[in-house]
Amino acid sequence: MIQNIPEVKLGIVAVSRDCFPVTLSERRRQAVVEWCKRLGINIFEAKTTVENENDVLKALDELKAAGVNALVVYLGNFGPEGPETMLAQKFDGPSMFVAAAEETQENLFDGRGDAYCGMLNASYNIGLRKLNPYIPEYPVGEAEEVANMIAHFVDVARVVIGVKNLKIFSFGPRPQDFLACNAPIKPLYDLGIEIMENSELDLFEAFNNHKDDPRIPEIVKQMQDELGTGNKHPGILPKLAQYELTLMDWYEKYRGSCKFAIFANKCWPAFQTQFGFVPCYVNARLASRGIPVACEVDIYGALSEYIVTLATQLPATILDINNTVPKDMYEANKDKFKDYKLTDLFMGFHCGNTPICHMKYAEMRYQLIMHRLLEPDKEPDITRGTLEGAIKPGEITIFRLQSTADCLLRSYVAQGEVIDVDPRSFGGIGVFAIKEMGRFYRYVLIQKRFPHHTAVAFKHIGKVLFDAMKMLGVDDISFNQPANMLYKNENPFK
């Protein structure tokens, strides 16, 4: 069950310019709320309509008393540009601005609101106050259209709220062999994220303190039930259970003032020789609960995985954009690859950290690469603990947020699918197809210096991710578009 994500509690406040009938804005607000109810959107309707600064304070009191954490500022008519933007400025949470369209040609005297015009002045004042609210692609509509815009805002707001209430725990120095994981963390503080960097010794001590923990048998039983016939190395389960309890107790003890937390942990090669296992399966289990654990101390990878979890409310994973699809595999499965080119394809792989719910089949195995390195010519022992198999076919979105060396934030979004083709390899792995991946690989991933790890959402969620990155102030957002890979900060998901 997904945990570790915020519940979005929407509130809507109508605004009205005092030279327009306040009843027009109120009536239109009520119509939007009614449509939200029809769409299953729970939204608090503030009764204060903001016409001046005193109304702002009254409305904020209403919102606070109702526990609202995401605000819709609704221009039912032209709106008072100063008070309405002050409302968003003083509200502690993400906000959205949207405006009412005129409903009928039969009522363009007393019933005309000019909110189309008012959005322009609102946007100017938003800039003066250095605000960054969500404004839809076309932010003017009738009640049903506005309600649908609000539905999208719920997902965007969940990402923003989650990120701004997050702590990232890391264990171990970021590895030299993966310098891409050494991106500056200063931009994370700018996003409102707390970082708690710890030594591997801290983790090792905490792990040893959980030896013979009375809860271990229950966790082992859960793992046995989950793995079923895929439980190929049952002897390693007690250590994995001990490690899972170590991380979860750390999560509860050290979140501090933050509501949510995730991990970025060193996972090899000393991990195996000291802890006696690989942590991949535990990482998968925590990810299935909405608590990503990125390997190789990839702090931005963990954050990226958490962001797609927030956007989808589904478990996510982190994979390497790993290897090409061989030509003979492509030729042998032409019917399944449809109109994809060979350069549209790649294999997404990691040792075994993808939640079992996203696996076509899954088994507890050992990490082949580490086995070659650490215990060659021996039966697997300290390299046991991976969850391996083919990733289920279906929709995916790949995403990454990354800092540049000079502390700018960059991200990318690309939508595609996992193809139902046997990858014929080890690890948690799947054959991925993304239109124009070859160009995306060269002109986004390489050109803009993105690393090998990507977060994977198991649905198409590009528009939410794009809009959330805009609200968070990300400097550069790239995406896969067949016509042009070089757009920057212009929404492609129209």
UniProtKB/TrEMBL annotation:
Which GO MF terms are attached to this record?
Answer: L-fucose isomerase activity
* Gene Ontology biological-process annotations: fucose metabolic process
Q: Does the keyword Transferase apply?
A: no
Keyword field contains Isomerase: yes
Superkingdom: Bacteria
- Gene Ontology cellular component list: cytoplasm
Using the record's annotation, list all stretches that form the L-fucose isomerase C-terminal domain: 349-475
Q: What is this protein called?
A: L-fucose isomerase-like protein
